[in-house]
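Researcher: Here's the sequence for the chain we discussed earlier.
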Amino acid sequence: MNLKKRGISTVVANVLIILLVLAAVAIIWAFIRPVITSTSEQISADCLTIDLEIESCQVSGTCTGGESNCYDIRVKRNAGKGDLRELRFIFELTDESSRVVPNPSSLGELESLTYTLLYGGGIIAATSVDVAAVIKGEIVCNPIKAIVSCGPGG
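Model: Thanks. This is the structure I predict for it:
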């Protein structure tokens, strides 16, 4: 027998394989972590828990300041925690375009309010309305996708 030929033992080979795998994982993580971090900053759990509902949208004849032609939009906030800073109303117009109207007032949990928005800014011919929440840090959540038609008696 020739005992002069020596190779790497199986223990050393397994340790080298484990070290190579750990190095590969560390290198991949170094590239993936910044993407995950920046994406998670854009997504907030508050967007998932804030539950808004448009109850009605009506064209009213007179606004509070004496102006004429307003939209009275009743919004209800259902149960769900979240730091709601403002609402953004998205009006769908007859020419299939849309206009976004910010409203800086907040809405408490389980509260309903009627928001009166004056015609103008290109929303005179709105056919429907949707609402999106703006939460802490100016993060705009997706609209609720429960579009309510606007019109007399809405």
